[in-house]
Amino acid sequence: MIKALNTAATGMVAQQTNIDVIANNMANVNTTGFKKSRAEFQDLIYQTIRSPGATLNDGSQLPTGIQIGQGTRTVSTEFIHTQGSFEQTGNQLDMAIEGNGFFQVVRPSGQINYTRAGNFKVDANGRLTSVDGFGIEPAINIPPDAASISIASDGTISVTQAGQTTSQQVGQVQIATFPNTAGLRAMGRGLFIPSDASGTALVTTPGQDGAGTLAQGFLEGSNVQVVNEMIDLISSQRAYEVNQRVVQAADDMLRKTAER
Asked: What is the Cα–Cα distance from 223 to 191, expressed in whole angstroms?
């Protein structure tokens, strides 16, 4: 069998994965705090027919060899944790992180997850929660008669209750940073959990230890650039088509060989 059939097939599979990644990026172009991914590829092992530098029978040395590649494969889909654009909402409970870091939320199981989505709500018990009802960590409670809520850049939350003129502090938002954010494991819903590759979370006050600061009344949008994704989509589609033509050419060669 002609090697080009299998080699081109690996290229088609790789480009299909690339298109799947681009499709997910495009689908989440308006998702709060979404971080796009990119597919990364690696060439496969080579069949060495002649090694570079090999010595021939007459004593001469080959300056180059004969090595035939076997195709490509997807080695990773890396999340790109660049800052998304900010949208001003005016909502007192909306927060955006300017710089590095993640908000911490606690699932019902007690597991802490990390997110860049700062569209927080207050539940029936006054707890500050994510849109899925996961409480923020450390826990913060908003009094039911709070007339106004103020969130400082260092995460300090103060409220002014009805009938009062002075504010009182009810808690402070802490954010987490990681040595390798690309190593975080995505859980869906805009949530991440640590892995051995990401390292352990460093929980700190916003604005300290390299962590970003908070902006009240803003939300961080997706960092997906539609134009760039469209360019990548066209490029991937063309690469798929080229590999498809290689398969067709190899098939024609096999057919003509069989006719002889």
From this structure: 15
The contacts of residue 124 (CB under 8 Å, 6+ apart) are none
Q: CA–CA separation, 98 vs 215, rounded Å?
A: 7
Query: Which residues in the chain belong to E strands, given as ranges?
Result: 37-43, 46-50, 66-69, 72-79, 86-88, 95-98, 102-106, 112-115, 121-122, 128-129, 135-136, 146-151, 156-161, 168-172, 175-177, 185-188, 191-193, 202-204, 213-216, 218-220
Task: Locate the domains of the chain by residue range.
Answer: 3-81+224-259, 86-220
pTM over 0.90: no
**Closest listed residue to residue 94, CA positions, set 73, 117, 68:** 117
Tell me the C-alpha distance between 84 and 80, whole Å.
10
pLDDT tens, 180-231?
999 999 999 999 999 999 999 999 999 999 999 999 999 999 999 999 999 9
Residue with tokens 């590999």: 243
Six token digits for residue 116: 């860049």
Output Rg (C-alpha) for the chain, integer angstroms: 27
86 and 219 Cβ atoms separated by less than 8 Å: yes
- Token reading at 182: 């690309």
Under 8 Å between Cβ of 54 and 65:
yes
- The residue whose two tokens read 């800052």 is 83
d(C-alpha 15, C-alpha 119), whole Å: 35
